[in-house]
Amino acid sequence: MTAIGIDLGTSNSAVAILDADGAPRILTTEDGSTTLPSVVTFDEHGGAVVGAAAWARAVERPEDAVFGAKRLLGRRADDPEVRRLAKLLPFEIVPSPNGDAWARVGGRAVAPEEISALILRELRAMAERFLGEPVTEAVITVPAWFDAAQRAATKDAAAIAGLRVRRLLNEPTAAALGHGAHRGQNRRFAVCDLGGGTFDVAIVDVENGVFEVLATAGDASLGGDDVDRAIVEQLAREVRSKGGLDLGTDAAALVRLRAAAQRVKHELSTAQVADLALPRLGQMPSGRAVDLARTIRRDELELWAMPLLRRLEAPCREAMVRAGRAAAELDEILLVGGMTRMPAVRRTIASIFGKEPRVVPNPDEVVAVGAAVEVARLEGRIEGVLLLDVTARGLALSVNGSPCDLVIAPSAVVPTREHRIIATRADGQRELEFDLWEGESAEASGNRHLARYAVSALPAAPAGEVLVVVELTVDVDGTARVAASELVSGERPLLKLVGGPGLSREQVAKLVEARR
Question: What is the pTM of this model?
């Protein structure tokens, strides 16, 4: 079975393979591009268009377009960050029956897993066109800071797309592999990955073929999309103050403005000024058309992006603290992700670490290449390399509102398994519920709630005499599994999920069947 490496990105996605001679190859779309815009549009019959063609259609029918779906994976509709994102999106974010964030588009509510699956299917089709044979498996990269729910949602998206996930690989780890950090002399790296939707930092040691991730940290709400949004918000304010037109309710205008903002951002990575011209951007109630024409300077963009640039420092510092490494002990700082082309990003990272970073060539492609390298490593085509990765966050349990008990610590080497013993609290209690949290705080408010489980069919006994062993496992993908057994008998009582994010197995199976 043929396997491929996939970088499922917020703004753009990519797919790669390793040739028979071990050389990496980024595959291209039908129009020759090495990246696929992570955009999907739907028609009135439910048909979907993906990529550049979807962007073109989005300008005409913005209400039928979805972009940035990766940021909705595993997230709730009432999440403060999701609510903030919703203000400048052309589609409506609505709660699913279990509270997940779905997109209302094309007249129906669509799960982000389904949208991501359409992007994955297109990447799969690109690979099948090139290889001339079916593709059924993939290594898919995810932000290191993705939590367990987001990782599970990514796997569901792959299943809907007809792909079995060989491994979910953290993006900075993939970037280091794609850069070739596993070859050559022993080195200590900090890998800073700033893409369309997330910022990840990994501290990595490479020594005698052992590729060890010591610690990761990141910001799941920081990326190129946020810089685009800063430009859009600034220009929308200017249109409102000068012309009295509120663009916030005009989906078509927002899509055009966002596309122009992205183009200007790209131009200002190499130029000092960029011109923006959007004739007939909007229309006043009187019928008068409002144009937007403006020259934007690089220093203006950097000023608008300054609050975002300041957020780069905290994850870098946290990763070094967790790894026990000072900046002076790092041999190399690697920059990957499209947003690292921005000069202000490079200056900020250089200031944090006290040394000039190395900008990886083709930063949009190196993560997909690293995923392809991992495919080859798993298949035994690359020998002498051992990959050790770690958990990004801790996992904790609580029972009946008790303080959260940290079970698996952050930066634990995966796979890992730990357990806790919980007891009944009432005479004759036959069912015991507990909550699973991601985070390290003893207070529930400082953690993210992942799920609630119920252990049922317990033996009737006085309070405290029935002891249940709850076993938590984090696999190499960073996804969590839960098991339970009764301590005295060793028997496994019924364990059921009472409430949690993501699609049910029935929903996934239905979507798999629908997309065949």
Answer: 0.91
